[in-house]
Amino acid sequence: MTDTVHEPTAAGPADDTPRCPFGHGELPDPVPLYGPEYKRDPYPLYRRMREAGPVHRVRFPSGIAAWLVTGYKAAHEALNDPRLGKNHALGNANWRKLASIMPEPQHSRLQVHLLHQDPPEHTRMRRLVLDAFTPRRAEALRPRIRELADALVDALPETGGADLVAGFAAHFPFRVLAEAIGLPPELAVRFDRDWGKVVQPVGPQDPGRPAYEARLRALEDYIADVVAHKRAHPDPAGPGTDLLGRLVAAHDAGGLSAEELDSMVFQLLVAGQEPVTNQITTMLITLLRHPDRLARLRDGIADDPGLLGRAVEELLRHDAAFELTTWRFFAEDSDLYGTTVPAGDSVIVSLCAANRDDEQFPDADVLDFDRTPNAHLAFGHGIHYCPGAALARTELQVALGTLLTRLPGLRPSTAAGADLDSLAWVPAVLARGVNSLPVAYDRRV
């Protein structure tokens, strides 16, 4: 992977200079945002990009080029820029051609969830989910969330070690989510986590494409079963206390189309759990790389009630699992911090790059549990701010508190040559995390 940073330029195009296919002149060579080294540690590259300017042309493994916004101020403004829309219909012909190989192929019914909508549709749809994820509801769920975390730790080996993805992080967020949205146990046990891979790009000629489309179809069938079950078994307490039931009732009353209903259930099932799974892994890896901070957090939880919450916020800032936002588009050629972006080109904001900006966070690469203020962008900002942020924060606090207190001596595993530097990071375009995290510990308390 090259780590050269290319600044947008206004100079006249030369014969061998890349040109915009829509007649907008010279384009900088895109910086590749993929590869094992980049996924393991993108922060040195992000630092060089921030220092060179706020907007850079980048390329993803699918071949799609995009304009990447880095730096806290630029990211914060872009996330609030009313000119930037999320609806895929705004993408130009070249983007749509390449995007057909990206997650959720264009023929899928799962396209029209909140991340792909603009007002007024976004406002109408978002209103249906907000009540289920208020801080008050998240706090009311905390005792049950602790029970779910303890049950998973109870199943870990008493001594030695375990894979904390297979044994904990891969299951904990989904079990919490099922409780929060009203997914019946008989349907929850049928959910295949492998279906979450539909958000990882697979090209049309890739040998894995048939398996990818099989996952997508299986997930669509599962969502149809969820909808049918909720329609046949409405919550006796009413749809206001059961988010899935509320969505089905909204569709039946004409407030959601069938595609909107399926897409919102898809977003809940996949986006509602995978980022938390990944965030648990990034937080644990960060703590394992900083054993002094791990010890302070473990030993201080009982004496300092606010420490765990502050630590979670700093760990979110330090290495967010949602690395990049999804696509945004200008409806017409527009200026973005001195760079002319053609209409329909994709614009993406790097949340991770923004969260390591020294101008906003002094000594941004330092892990500081006492950092204040800490207005990180790990959950986004503006109208697309993550509606489940309060629940995610509660889950992360419970997960870390449970693992650190019940697994004393938690440390990286040295079995079979395992170490933190050899971890395989998931190849997802937008996310950071690992699928396996072997650790050792003294005993299970």
Strand content: 5-15%
CATH topology: Cytochrome p450
Distinct helical segment count: 17
The average pLDDT value, as a whole number, equals 88
Tell me the overall shape: globular
Total domains: 1
CATH architecture: Orthogonal Bundle
The radius of gyration over CA amounts to 22 Å
The stretches of 5 or more residues where confidence is low (pLDDT under 50) are 1-26
Q: Based on DSSP secondary structure assignment, what is the total number of beta strands?
A: 11
Spatial order of the strands forming the largest sheet: 1-2-3-9-6-4
State the helical fraction: 40-55%
Under CATH, the homologous superfamily reads Cytochrome P450
Separation, N- and C-terminal Cα atoms = 44 Å
CATH class: Mainly Alpha
Q: Helix- and strand-based class?
A: alpha+beta
Helix-strand string: EHHEEHEHHHEHHHHHHHHHEEEEHHEE
Largest sheet: 6 strands, mixed
Summarize the structure.
This protein is an alpha+beta fold and 445 residues long. It has one domain: Cytochrome P450 (Cytochrome p450, Orthogonal Bundle).
Q: Would you write up a description of this structure?
A:
The protein is α+β, with helices and mostly antiparallel strands and 445 residues long. It has one domain (31-441): Cytochrome p450 (Orthogonal Bundle), CATH 1.10.630.10. It has 17 helices and eleven strands. It has helices at 36-40, 43-52, 72-79, 93-99, 121-130, 135-154, 165-169, 172-181, 185-188, 209-232, 243-252, 258-271, 274-289, 291-300, 307-318, 351-355, 389-406, and strands spanning 31-32, 55-59, 65-69, 84-85, 160-163, 328-330, 334-336, 339-341, 346-349, 411-412, 438-441. The strands form three sheets. The protein has a six-stranded mixed β-sheet with strand order 1-2-3-9-6-4. The protein has a three-stranded antiparallel β-sheet with strand order 5-11-10. A two-stranded antiparallel ribbon has the order 7-8. A hairpin with a 2-residue loop joins strand 7 (334-336) and strand 8 (339-341). Helix 6 (135-154) crosses helix 8, helix 11 (243-252) runs antiparallel to helix 12 (258-271) and helix 13 (274-289) crosses helix 17 (389-406). The chain is globular, with a radius of gyration of 22 Å. Belongs to the cytochrome P450 family. InterPro entries: Cyt_P450, Cyt_P450_B, Cyt_P450_CS, Cyt_P450_sf. Residues 1-34 are annotated as: Disordered.
